[in-house]
Design brief:
With about 270 residues, the chain is an alpha/beta fold. It has helices at about 20-30, 40-55, 70-80, 105-135, 155-175, 195, 210-225, 235-250; strands at about 10-15, 35-40, 60-65, 85-90, 135-140, 180-185, 190, 210, 230. The protein has one domain: NAD(P)-binding Rossmann-like Domain (Rossmann fold). It has a seven-stranded parallel β-sheet, sandwiched between helices. Strands 7-8 form a two-stranded parallel sheet. It is globular, with a radius of gyration of 19 Å. It comes from Shinella sedimenti. Pfam families: adh_short (PF00106). Keywords: Oxidoreductase. This is SDR family oxidoreductase.
């Protein structure tokens, strides 16, 4: 895909609805051309036509199920080879159907394939391509349960904790390459995720559920401000900074040549 946009092309996964579709709208509004990735060709085509008409940008669609290895590699190839791509929104994923012990283990495997395996493979591909070009931005959509895993299904929380840790580690490795990283940690958000998981967003406390447009606008503001980790609902940034500071205090003591004294045998 060639691009006439000075901002380049943004590739967005999970783009047919919810967070992904809203990112597509906001990035098109900013002037990015788009590559939209999802399983639902009809919805992708409709969104592409709307965005082209509304913003005058170029839009390409890729029909892909990222839990399928051949589809995943198809999207990976586009990220690696299309030099017009300057921004990757790593959004595709699924949520749980209920508590972990009541969930179906095959479904949980699919969740890991999407939320971890696909997210990892595509982000690494983007990082390698962008660092070779000396510029680019990767936005990884995690979740607030990455830092409070006790509140939700363990496999889902674990998959999002992976995304957060992966982003933090990759940012360190990419320092000085011209590539920007951001992990976005939404709380409860008004999307189709709950309906697809067999629940309903309407059953949740409305005071705790953010509109998807507000979420994406806040996430993009965090990106503009240079945040590595953006938690759109968090009132005080200092609270996150305290958590990070406490984590780094542990750093010098997580590896020694002897066990801690409390583990000494009699």
């Amino acid at each position: 895909m060639t691009t006439s946009s000075p901002l380049g092309t943004a590739l967005v996964t999970g783009a047919s609805a919810g967070i992904g579709a809203t990112y597509a709208d906001r990035l098109a509004r900013r002037g990015h051309d788009l590559i939209l990735v999802a399983r639902d060709t009809a919805r992708l085509s409709a969104l592409a036509q709307t965005l082209k008409a509304q913003y005058g940008i170029a839009v390409d669609i890729l029909r892909a199920d990222l839990s399928v290895p051949t589809d995943l590699r198809f999207v990976e190839k586009r990220l690696r080879e299309d030099a017009a791509v300057t921004l990757f929104v790593n959004n595709a994923g699924i949520g749980p159907k209920g508590p972990l012990l009541a969930d179906d283990v095959d479904y949980l495997d699919t969740m890991i394939a999407l939320n971890v395996t696909a997210a990892n493979r595509l982000a690494v591909a983007a990082a390698q391509a962008f660092s070779a070009r000396g510029n680019g931005t990767i936005v990884n959509i995690a979740s607030a349960v990455a830092i409070v895993p006790e509140l939700f299904n363990g496999t889902y929380s674990g998959s999002k904790a992976f995304v957060l840790a992966f982003t933090q580690a990759l940012a360190k490795e990419l320092d000085g390459t011209g590539v920007r990283l951001q992990a976005v940690l939404p709380g409860l958000t008004r999307t189709e995720l709950f309906d697809r998981a067999g629940g309903s967003v309407e059953a949740l406390d409305p005071n705790r559920v953010m509109d998807v447009a507000d979420l994406v606008d806040a996430a993009l503001a965090g990106l503009d401000q240079g945040e590595l980790v953006t938690i759109p609902s968090l009132p005080e940034k200092a609270d996150w900074e305290k958590l990070e500071a406490a984590r780094f205090v542990l750093g010098p003591n997580i590896s020694h040549n002897k066990p801690a004294a409390r583990y000494a045998t009699a």
